[in-house]
Each structure stands twice: as C-alpha cells, then as structure tokens.
Q: What sequence folds into this?
C-alpha cells in the first residue's frame, strides 16, 4: 500500500518536474533573437511587467502628458478647452491613431474610456466623472459633477489614466468590463507576458508617431538589485535602472559599473529629493530654532561625496527649484554653518553642562528618535551619517529601523522626531505632496508642520492651480524648516555600450525606448 | 490506512489553527492593507479611494467575522478569495507559481539528501580522520554561509568568470543548477550532521556488535544493519525540509529571479494582503501536515518495528 503510494507520488513529482522544464525552455529559446539584423533590447527590471509603469509606458499612452517642467502637453488628444465653470472638457483627439488590435482611437473609444473609468477606476478624478458625449468622430466632451482643477494632470498620469482599448475588457465595450488583455496605442505591443518572468514587446508598425527603431523589447523580471548588476555585466541584459523610478542600482555599485569599459552609466535628475521629516508637533522640533539648527548642521556636499562617491546632487531646498511651481526657491537653499547651528541650540536653552558632548536642558539630554522605514534608498549609510553629523552639535540620534507598514503606523502616532522619506515631486501633482503631508487635514502626517496660515496658502494654490500661488506655499515651507532635504536621488541608468540613442523621458515614470537602437 | 484515519482530525485542526493565527496576526499587525495598496497603485495616497477600497473588500469587518466569512468561502466554494494587491484569485496566484517552487524544492532536496548523506557517512565512518575534518568543514560552511552571499559567489564564478550558466531566470536545466546548489548546500549540511550523529550512535549499538560477531562483511554491517536504522532521523529532517521548501525560498527566488511562491508571499505580507497570506499559509500547512504523515509512513518502511509498536499500542 505505502509502496504504491510513494511510487505514485514520486512519479507525479517527476512529471510535474519534467513538465515545467519543457514548457519553460521552449519559450526561453523563442525569446532569443534569431537573426543578426533584428534589433532587440533586453531590459532587466525590478518589478513584474504589470507593476512597472515605466516599461508599460511603451505600450500605453494617455490623453495628455506632462513635459519635464510639469506642464500639460498634448498626447492622444491634440487640443482641448474647458468651460467657464470648469465642469465640461472638450477634447479634440489625435487622428490616425489605432489600438494594437486595429480598433480605431476615436471619440467613441474615448467616451468608453471615460465611462469605464467611472465604473471601475479608483482615485483622483474618477469620483468627479458624470458623463461623456460624442460630438463628432474626433471630438469628445467629458462632463464633471463639479469643477476639478487637477483633471488634466490626473489624465497625464500613467497610474490613473493610461488609455486602454475598449476591446481589452470582457465583455468588449462594456462600461463595467473586466480588464483582460493588454492593448494600448503605444509604439510597442505585448506579444507575450509571463507573470514575474518575462514580457516580450514587439514594434507596432501602425504607430501614429515616430516609428521606434527596435523590433523587440524583452523585459526580464529580476527582483534582486545585485543580480541585475551582474546580469548587465554578463551581457544577459542590455539595460538596467531604466524601468524603476526609485534608485534601483545600488549607489555603491555605480563606481564599479563606471569602471567597466563595456558599460555606460547615464544619470539624470528628476528633482526627487530624499528628505528627513521633522515631528513639528511633539518633542524638541516643535521649536523652529531646533529645526533650523539641524538643517544648518548637515554638510550635504560631504554626504554625497563621501557616501555616494559623487553620485547624487546635494539638495538644500525642499523640492527642486527647476519646477515652475517652486522656482521661487532658487537661491533660498539651506547653508552649512555649524557655528550658527550651535548658537541656535544655545539660544533654545540646550547647553552641554556635564561635558559628555551631548547638550542638556532642565536635566534632560538632547536625544532624538530617527525612524527609518525599510526600503528607502540608501537608508543605512544616511542614518549613520546623520547620527555622526548631529553628534557634532551635541545631539544624540537613536536610529530605529522598522518594516514599512509598521513605520508608517508609528509615524501616524507621532512616535518619531525624525522620519526618513522622500519628496513626492510628481510633476503632474504639485498639490499632492502638500495635501498629503503639510495640510492640517492630512491623516498620514498629523505630526508634520501644520498651521492655519499654511492651510490657507495650500487651499488657495490648489483652487487656482497657479504657479505663483504654489511658489508661496513652497517658500513658506522652506522658511519654516519643515524637513531636512538631503540630496537629489538622481535616476541612474546603466547599459551596454551597444545600446545607442537612450534619452531620459520627461518624467521618472517612463522608460523611454522609442529612440533606442542597437549597434554591435 | 487505519493509521491515516486516526491522524486525520489532528491534521485538519492544525491547518485550521494555522490559518486562524495567520489571519489574526495580519489583522493586528500595524499597517493597513488599503493604505499600502492604494498608495502603491497611485504612488500617492488618495483617501476616498482608500475608503472605497476598504468597503469594497470588506476590510471593515471585525476580525472574527472576517475570518469566518473567508473560511466559509474556502470550505463551501473552495474559493480563497482574491488578492487585494493584484486582484487575481489567490488559488490562481498560487498555481501559477507552484510549479517553479516544486521543481526547485524537489531538486534541492534531492541534491541535499545525496550530498548530505554522503558527507555524513564519510564523516561517521572515517570518524576522527582527515576525511572527517574535511567533511565537517564543508558542513560548517554550509550552515554558516548566508544564501545571498553564496548565490552571488556562484553567479560570479559560473556566469561572469566561466560563462557557462545564466545568472538568473527560469525555464531550463541550466537555470535550475545554481538555485539548487545554493538551497541544497545549506540543507545538505544539516542532513550531513544528523546522518553523522545518527550513524555514530547506531554503530555503538549491540546489534552491530552482534552482526560483526556473526562475521558479516563490514559493508553488509554498515549498509544493511546500521544505515537503515540511522536513516530515521534523517528522513524526519528531510521531510521537514521539504515542507519548508514548498513554502518557497524567498532569498534564492529573489537572487535568481526564480518565479516561486516565496517572494510573492513576502511581498503580500508587506502589503498586508491577508487573503493571500492566509490562503497560502493554509496550503503550506496542508503540505506540511501531509508530508509529516508520509514521513511517518516512510518510517514503517524503513523500520517495520515502528509499525509493530503502533499496532501493539492498539
């Protein structure tokens, strides 16, 4: 009895074993380019294809997009106008655009998209959707329940509004259909997708814009960052770091990649800044002088130079002044002045009375709790650096590292003095960061800096959508020392030198392979 | 058969308790599935969307009610629910990844058992010699070298220096070699240690002395009389290891981009995706319990005395 049972089990195991091996190897072989003339780019990415907005940007497009300054520019819509009351948007669609399965992109498809979003979408503009109307073949009108000034920026977001074909849902053209296929209008179409393994994209020959030079993109999922680096060095993938918006190549491995003659390292700033947030409601950093002292005490030049060997750009403003909505910050950056920092601490009543190098006030030591959520870029070296810098001005830093979910809960309860985070810097959402972090209604950051005056400035900027108004908000935040900006997390892409024509996309949420070609 | 029936109730209870514990732990752990998942999807929090997500997925239910609802779906419809993170069916998510996990688990276990028993026997039979020291050094290394480091070293050697194996991926026998080596090496060390101890122990027994006294050849004494008896703790260990392996190998899966269940499980844990975590844990527990049963049956094959004892207890 048992013998038969064991035998069956063994056989079953072997069959499964053989089965996976066989099916797998076939497709892996197919993925290898057969002719020399075929232009194939092999990409190594940290996330599954469906979870990487960056690689999907080659397959899906939006009605509008933002340029590198965050301004909304035409994409699948050529122009648009907004009614006086802000509730009716009329879009004139780009002509001669079709989805990968041949379905034409026209007012009917746009109307379907809008109504499908209303029924199945999540977040942002979705809750303001009322109705849509087809005016003629290439003109569509979107109705909102109430004015929503961020609509165009939302429509420019891959996360919220990538346009899919009405035939990609089941049942086709249904407003409540379930998404089943990957059909967009982009320069590449999905030929094969294997969850958490590979996606093969092929050029779409009827693409409306400039035809890409590549025939194929093979996107390989490699979750481990060090393996991605090795795979690039070994020639198994051609490019890494392009399909993640966070710093996906470890900074400490960049010098080694630079030294490799076969590899090109290409860096670009998107104004995404790593910051440390203060607890402005509880503890020592309620006092603006204390926050200012810390900002004065950090040598950002040395941080970037010593820790990252020059990769990264020191940041002294809370968001990049390159954005039009924060251009007023230019020249207002925080200086490095340890003496001034010490003076401020003394002024605030903190003096080292027992000579142990740490200041005291009313018998209490100047000790702060620095909360680090796991997964932030370069978290460990930065933590140690902060600790040593702040010790120089007589402040003890206790580093507490926590799993992300737990860290965010602790943050909501205010169990921190310092909290490692990054500035949002989403070009299409200058308001997102303000509402989510610094407005007093923010459920996630109840212990960040809040004041009625700031609330008023933020509300005004969001209502008007005007850059001047946003600038006022950012200036106020900068003056109040609401956080410690550390450095600009530059996007680092590394590729084999046979890869030519790589140009950084306007936003960090896009891996731009439209202009890439291979030259052996 | 009778024995199997006897063991059934406790096996089912184990599965239930494990699923309940995992459900509760996730419920009470800090962090909120709706917030984490929506923020991940939109790259910024959106509170109305979070609210909607909570209501849609019934995340507002008290823990017991939520668990009973989930459990009744599992038992009445064999429906583990949908992943909060990916929106796909939990069972589907499991089945897509399980072939990779099973392949790696079986191949690593096979390698580990072979290497482990060889090293352990060598070490035991040549106890105190140079060979014993070598074998023990290898097993110490296997236990103490972290998997991620060994993985990187292997990639450096086989992919970068020698260029004979792909550094990552899934699909062919070449892809399987390095993950098997890394995972199997660690396990083999434990198996070797247990084999060594067990062999040394058995070799001291009187029946071995008796067998020798009867003039059996040394080979017969070792392989027929001693080895078979020494194998029982090894089988237990290998069974437990297989149970663990079927739960996925997070680090090895990450390093070699092996599409198994482990990394998905951990990602789900971080996202507090409780249908996935509870469902997967339930399936893992089921495997674990089944394997334990099988190992017990295997004992009876290895050593019929156990069967006799059990019947005698009846």
A:
């Amino acid at each position: 009895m048992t013998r038969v049972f064991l035998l069956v089990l063994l056989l079953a195991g072997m069959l499964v074993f053989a089965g996976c091996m066989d099916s797998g190897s076939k497709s892996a072989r197919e993925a290898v380019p057969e002719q020399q003339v075929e232009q194939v780019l092999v990409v190594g990415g940290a996330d599954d294809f469906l979870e990487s907005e960056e690689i999907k940007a080659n397959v899906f497009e939006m009605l509008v997009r933002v340029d590198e300054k965050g301004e909304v520019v035409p994409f699948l819509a050529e122009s648009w106008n907004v009614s006086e009351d802000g509730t009716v948007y009329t879009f004139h669609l780009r002509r001669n655009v079709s989805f990968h399965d041949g379905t034409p992109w026209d007012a009917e498809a746009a109307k379907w998209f809008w109504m499908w979003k209303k029924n199945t979408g999540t977040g942002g503009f979705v809750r303001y959707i009322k109705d849509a109307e087809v005016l003629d073949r290439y003109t569509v009108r979107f109705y909102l329940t109430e004015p929503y000034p961020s609509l165009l920026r939302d429509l420019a977001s891959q996360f919220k509004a990538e346009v899919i074909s009405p035939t990609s849902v089941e049942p086709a053209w249904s407003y409540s259909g379930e998404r089943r296929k990957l059909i967009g209008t982009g320069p590449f179409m999905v030929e094969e997708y294997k969850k958490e393994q590979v996606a093969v994209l092929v050029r779409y020959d009827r693409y409306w814009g400039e035809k890409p030079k590549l025939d194929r993109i093979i996107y390989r999922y490699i979750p481990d960052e060090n393996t991605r680096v090795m795979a690039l060095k070994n020639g198994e993938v051609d490019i890494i770091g392009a399909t993640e918006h966070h710093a996906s190549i470890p900074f400490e491995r960049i010098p080694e990649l630079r030294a490799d003659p076969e590899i090109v390292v290409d860096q670009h700033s998107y104004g995404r800044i790593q910051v440390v947030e203060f607890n402005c409601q509880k503890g020592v950093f309620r006092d603006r002088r204390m926050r200012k002292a810390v900002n004065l005490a950090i040598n950002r030049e040395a941080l970037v130079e010593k820790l990252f060997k020059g990769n990264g750009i020191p940041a002294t403003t809370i968001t990049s002044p390159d954005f039009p909505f924060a251009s007023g910050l230019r020249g207002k950056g925080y200086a490095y002045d340890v003496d001034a920092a010490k003076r401020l601490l003394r002024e605030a009543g903190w003096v080292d009375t027992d000579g142990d190098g740490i200041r005291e006030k009313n018998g209490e030591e100047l000790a702060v709790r620095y909360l680090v959520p796991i997964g932030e870029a370069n978290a460990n070296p930065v933590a140690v650096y902060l600790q040593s810098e702040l010790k120089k001005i007589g402040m003890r830093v206790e580093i507490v590292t926590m799993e992300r979910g737990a860290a965010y809960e602790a943050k909501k309860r205010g169990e921190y003095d310092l909290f490692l985070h990054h500035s949002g810097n989403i070009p299409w959402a200058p308001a997102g960061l303000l509402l989510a972090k610094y407005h007093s209604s923010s459920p996630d950051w109840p212990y960040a800096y809040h004041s009625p005056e700031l609330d008023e400035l933020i509300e005004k900027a969001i209502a008007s959508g005007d850059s001047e108004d946003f600038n006022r908000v950012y200036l106020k935040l900068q003056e109040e020392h609401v956080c410690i900006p550390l450095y600009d997390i530059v996007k680092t892409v590394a590729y084999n030198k046979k890869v030519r024509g790589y140009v950084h996309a306007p936003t960090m949420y896009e891996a731009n392979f439209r202009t890439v070609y291979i030259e052996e | 058969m009778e024995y199997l029936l006897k063991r059934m109730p406790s096996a089912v209870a184990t599965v239930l308790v494990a699923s309940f514990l995992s459900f509760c732990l996730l419920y009470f752990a800090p962090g909120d599935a709706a917030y984490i998942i929506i923020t991940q999807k939109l790259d910024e929090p959106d509170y109305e969307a979070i609210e909607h997500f909570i209501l849609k997925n019934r995340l507002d239910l008290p823990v017991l009610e939520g668990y009973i609802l989930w459990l009744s779906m599992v038992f009445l419809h064999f429906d583990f629910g949908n992943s909060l993170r990916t929106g796909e069916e939990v069972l589907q998510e499991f089945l897509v990844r399980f072939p990779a996990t099973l392949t790696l688990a079986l191949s690593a276990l096979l390698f580990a058992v072979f290497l482990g028993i060889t090293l352990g026997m060598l070490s035991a039979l040549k106890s105190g010699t140079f060979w014993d020291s070598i074998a023990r050094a290898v097993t110490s290394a296997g236990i103490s070298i972290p998997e991620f480091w060994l993985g990187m070293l292997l990639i450096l050697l086989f992919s970068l220096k020698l260029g004979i194996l792909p550094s990552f991926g899934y699909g062919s026998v070449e892809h399987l070699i390095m993950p098997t080596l890394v995972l199997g090496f660690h396990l083999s060390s434990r198996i070797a240690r247990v084999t060594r101890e067990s062999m040394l122990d058995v070799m001291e027994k009187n029946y071995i002395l008796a067998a020798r006294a009867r003039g059996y050849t040394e080979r017969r004494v070792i392989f027929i009389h001693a080895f078979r008896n020494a194998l029982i703790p090894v089988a237990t260990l290998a069974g437990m290891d297989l149970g663990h392996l079927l739960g996925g190998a997070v680090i090895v899966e990450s390093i070699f981009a092996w599409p198994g269940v482990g990394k998905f499980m951990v990602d789900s844990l971080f996202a507090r995706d409780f249908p996935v975590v509870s469902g997967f844990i339930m399936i893992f527990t089921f495997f674990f319990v089944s394997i334990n049963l099988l190992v017990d049956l295997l004992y009876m094959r290895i050593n019929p005395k156990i069967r006799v004892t059990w019947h005698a207890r009846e």
Q: What stands out?
A: Chain B touches chain A through 60 residues (CB under 8 Å). The two ends of chain B are 14 Å apart (CA to CA). Residues 2-77 of chain B form one domain.
